[in-house]
Amino acid sequence: MLRDSIVSAQPRRAVKPPAETAERQADRLRWAMLVRQDELDAATHALLDPDSLGTVVTGPPGVGKSFLASAVLSALGSDAYPLRLRTSTTGHSSDYACIGALLARLPKGTSSSPTGLLLAVERMLREDAMGRPVVLVLEFTGALDEASVGVLLHLLLSGTARLLAVAQRATDLPADFLRLLRRGRLAEIPLRGIGVPETRRLVTALVDGRVASSAVGELHHACGGNPAAVQGIVRRERATGNLHKRGGVWTLDGAVQPEQGSGTDEIIRARWAREPQDVREVIEHLAVARRVPIAGLAGLFGSEVLVDMEDRALIAVDTSEHRCAYLREPRMAELVRERLGPDRHRELASLTSLGGAPEESGLDREDLVSYVEWSLDVGSTVGPELVVHAARAAIALFEPQRALDILESAGRLAPEVTVEAAFHRASALTLLERREEALVALDALPEQALAALPPVPLARHAAAKSELLTWLPERGEAQAPLHKAWDALAVMAEADPSELRDAEEILDLAEFRMRAFRGDYTAVLDALEAASRRTGCSEDFRRESSLLLAQGWAACGREADAAALMASFGLNSPQHLDDDAYVAAAFAVWISNGDWKRCVDLFERYIDRGGRRLSLRGGLAELFLALALVMAGRGSSALGPLLNAIAQLEEFPARNALRTAYAATAFAYAQIGDSGEAERFLERSAALSMTAPWLFEFLTDFCQGMARRWLGDPSACELLLAKAADEESAGRVTAAGIEVFGASVPGTEREFLWIERLAHRRQGPLAHLMAAVAVGSRRKDAEALLDAAEVAYGMELDALEARCAALALDFARDRSDSAAAGRAQTRLDRLTRVLPMLPLLPQVPAPVLTERERQIAVMAASGASNRDIADAIGVSVRTVEGHLYQVFMKLGVSSRSGLDGLV
Question: Most buried pick, 10, 78, 817, 871, via CB within 10 A?
């Protein structure tokens, strides 16, 4: 009998791991649960809820399902009796295979009937648990026989045990368990990979310090969304020195490889090994090809095996027009490729050759790049067009080094793709800030090859070279390649009109970008506006022209029009976080309107979105975020992201922004009153000389000047005013207005009139606020300045609000306007508790309310009588009256009603 064979088996003894291994596992578990607390609480609650039969943790491979189950058991502690079970991983299982070890412990003479086995197992578990709740821990890694299902179901429904199950999908459960789940008797805890914010929280806790966004993005990519892997990766990268501290910020020197050899990998290998030969061949084929049209795959292997694999969730079919099949578990594809020998590699590569048309294969960018890399590694022949497509895809993935490696591995390419390959090599080098090498790559193309180019490649070559020369002015005039290309297009009378139009758009955009880089907006604003409204052009051309136009308007006094343009083109959707041109334009537009909070939100979302781009753009993203804060007067909040940005930009000087980062950090330190650090970063900023876009140059000059003004440097105002004159002469009245306003503390009539004159040529809330402050300051109008302070309060510009309040206080005292002085003083009292250092102090400091006076004033303003106040705080009525007299005198009011809004 089946039972006789089962009971003759010896129960397996648990192998106790070494103490060091157990301690390490516990440590990993503790760290991983930092970002799984909500799921841990939900699972634990489901196991303790008397109306629940347990919980099922679901999710794709590598998200930490087993770790969560272990954490649940740790949370239950010794109050529960856990029993670990496992489904078969060796194909179809025999009856009672899952609980064989339990049946082996039953005493001889136990009834062999199903009912007798149920009752015997139930009785034995109750005795083992000694009154504690039994928790059946079951990982669904394979088939579960019906006999075991019956026993487990009885244990649950009889109240003997609760279930803690782990499965990839709820549909992996036996039908009876799935029914319980859908009826709410079992709770499902779905897990997904952790995001960048969770990875940041984990890594920050592990290293106990600030971590650069570029490092967080790289570590997030390496962990694959599994919190349990983060600690091991961080420990390994610290040990190798790749993860190290720079300027108080943890950053990376190079790429990070994922952790290898996890328990999940062993499960996946076991699943692959137990499959029949035809299924393994399909898996190998898809592991190599990544995605294959289902019709072609059925022609090779037959539809029956594919239907079976889809039913068992081994493969899936996408919704593209090609209807491509792919392996559901990407990790399985990686592991299978690792196990294939060189001969099998080449055999499969020949079967899955894509030729030169990857768009017909259904491969996404990552799959295409991986396929070409793998094919080149195993010595398979890869078509030159496919090599070029893969290089372009790697650049789009923000992995320029992979693009360079592919082009290098491919060796000498066919003449028809030489120019395209040079474009991609130059693009990859530019992303890596190696512009000199990029220019060499373009210059290496022979003249005869360039002369034979069709219109579009000709224009692309000219545009790429012009952009590089914009950054490298010592190597030549940036307009020269564009003029040469225009001349060449002029003699291509027989070319296709649509190709000529596309080439002209490329050259126009190159001209616009070059002008925008230099801040020479006035020369192209009309052309940009016409381009943004042009019909019959490509959507990309119109969109990029609109972005450049918005930046030009923002710099040249049309801030409100710029904001409306951004909104009218629908550029605020989350998908544009992947568009660097968009985020740069959004920053320029919103900061010119004083909408700093929107900038902060944009770049926080950009950083949290993650991706490989953070390894190249993380420093810039943190710099833009910090610039929005420091321009709003929030230096203390800006210092964290600023120091992070500096650590990254010193490692990887993205867009020559390091000088701007130093200047902004100096300004932030000046705002919090740390003159020593402010001077140090001013020196570092002044010591650098590099070509950078106009926006960075403006921000650098402004932050340097403002830092010096906050430090009391008497020459700072004149330097700011000189820069403002240059900006105004170039037509950039927004920039000029910001610099004059920054210089006008406490200000002269000349400066106030200058601000007012510039404001008449500007738009937007920030321009109107600056004009109001200038008018109120020139007229010494306390009420006007208090109104301006209220506007600044609404925009959360604390430093500007403090400036208005300090001036209003002085002007009100000069005119013996006690009411206005009281309101100004109250506003300053609040701001003193918010700002580390006021940008402007009143010339005649006003008395400040004591804590007792403030307490009584608040109660009186809320309607309490003197008797009520006296009883509440335990003093006499005469004491309350004396305090209120002092409050009225200090705040310049004559009755309780005047306190409303002041305290």
Answer: 817
CA angle, 696 as apex, 392 and 743 as ends, to 5°? Answer: 165
Give the separation between CA 215 and CA 626, rounded to whole angstroms. 18
Q: Which amino acid is it at 254?
A: G
Cα separation, 903 vs 893, in Å, equals 12
Three-state DSSP at 771 gives helix
In sequence order, what are the beta bridge partners of 55? Answer: 164, 187
Residue where the block lists tokens 């923002």:
554
Sign of CA dihedral 529, 532, 535, 536: positive
Tell me the residue length of the chain.
903
Neighbouring C-beta atoms of residue 177, cutoff 10 Å = 26
- In whole angstroms, what is the distance from residue 563 CA to residue 591 CA? 10
Q: Which residues of 863-872 are buried (b: 16+ CB within 10 A; e: fewer)?
A: ebebeebbee
What's CA 592's distance to the chain center, in Å? 24
Those residues with Cβ within 8 angstroms of residue 700's Cβ, 6 or more apart along the chain or in another chain:
659, 660, 663, 685, 692
Strands 315-317 and 324-327, bridge-based pairing: antiparallel
Q: Is 256 in contact with 242 (CB distance < 8 Å)?
A: yes
The alpha carbon of 189 is separated from its chain's Cα centroid by a whole number of angstroms, namely 25
Cite the beta strand spans of 294-386 per DSSP E: 315-317, 324-327
| pLDDT category of residue 576 using cuts at 50, 70 and 90 | low
End-to-end CA distance of the chain: 88
Residue recorded with tokens 């499960």: 267
Type of residue found at 775: V
Helices (H) and strands (E) in the chain, counts: 46, 11
Collapsing DSSP to helix, strand or coil, 293 comes out as strand
Peptide bond between residue 293 and the one before it cis (omega within 30 degrees of 0):
no
- Enter the tokens of residue 459: 């224009």
DSSP 489-500: HHT-TTS-HHHH
The tokens for 187 are: 């709770």
Is the pLDDT assigned to residue 859 strictly greater than 50?
yes
Distance CA 870, CA 856 (A): 9
For residues 521 and 474, is the Cβ–Cβ distance under 8 A? no
| Count of Cβ atoms closer than 10 Å to residue 79 Cβ | 9
- Provide Rg for the chain, Cα atoms: 35
DSSP state, 98?
A: T
Distance, in Å, from the CA atom of 846 to the CA atom of 457, rounded to the nearest integer, reads 70
Q: Which helix (H) or strand (E) holds 788?
A: helix 782-794
Residues 240-296 have pLDDT tens digits of: 999 999 989 999 998 898 776 556 677 677 777 778 888 888 988 888 888 888 888
Non-local (6+) Cβ contacts of 604 within 8 A are: 625
Q: What average pLDDT score do residues 469-487 get?
A: 96
Nearest to 395 by CA among 335, 292, 464, 474: 464
Return the residue matching tokens 């007229």.
779
The pairing of beta strand 81-86 with beta strand 134-139: parallel
Sign, Cα dihedral of 37, 41, 42, 47: positive
Percentage of the chain with pLDDT > 70? 91
pTM for the whole thing? 0.84
Sheet holding 315-317, edge to edge: 292-293, 324-327, 315-317
In angstroms, the CA 668 to CA 676 distance is 12
CA angle 230, 235, 241 (to 5 degrees): 125
* Residue 175, C-beta contacts closer than 8 angstroms, at least 6 positions apart: none
Whole-number Å distance between alpha carbons of 348 and 738: 64
Of 758, 824, 769, which is closest to residue 795 (Cα–Cα)? 769
Q: Which residue has the tokens 């070509």?
A: 691
Under 8 Å CB-to-CB from 446, ≥6 apart: which residues?
Answer: none
Show the CA angle centred on residue 611, arms to residues 696 and 694, nearest 5°. 10
